[in-house]
Amino acid sequence: MTSQGIFPLWLLLFAIWIAAAGASLEPASLAAGVALALGIAIAVARHSNIWRDVRLCPRRAFALLRYAAVFVREIIRSNLKLLAYIYAPRLRLAPGIIPVRTKLATPLGRLALTSTITLTPGTLAIDLSGETFLIHVLDLTTTDTEEATAEITGAFEPHLARAFG
Asked: Cβ(54)–Cβ(164) under 8 Å?
């Protein structure tokens, strides 16, 4: 078993545990979180190489924080856009599927990008093949791949590239 990738994954899972536990920082809760996060991290590291290339450093951590802020902003913007569609007198949508190319090189970066796209209201990542995603868009404004790539991934990709390489 390789130990590469266990610590970053454990740290992420433990942070999720703390967030889910709310204000409860009781020793028993923290101990359970440490143990559970470590167990999951070891199990995942045994069967997946996706966390192997993750390197922790302040620059990458700051990039993840900026990504999180951009992600929250884009979620709010997308929800407001969908709200406008819902309350519009006439529903004028142009749904479609478009290929989008990414410059992210690592599997974890691509996973984060596809998850981000799927979690953003109005878009859904359907398929990933190499550097190309197929994205279902609720209101497709362009059929040009480069333009769609900039519109869909432009806010996220630079931050994910700095965080995951």
From this structure: yes
Whether residue 121 contacts residue 93, with contact meaning beta carbons closer than 8 Å, is answered with no
SS3 55: coil
Residue 32 to residue 80: CA distance in whole angstroms: 38
Task: Find the length of the chain.
Answer: 165
Output phi, psi for 15, to 5 deg. Answer: -65, -40
Residue among 100, 109, 101 at smallest CA distance from 165: 109
Which is nearest to 153 in space by CA: 67, 90, 28? 67
Question: What's the pTM value of the predicted model, to 2 decimals?
Answer: 0.70
**To which residue do tokens 């610590």 refer?**
7
Average pLDDT score over residue span 105-119? 84
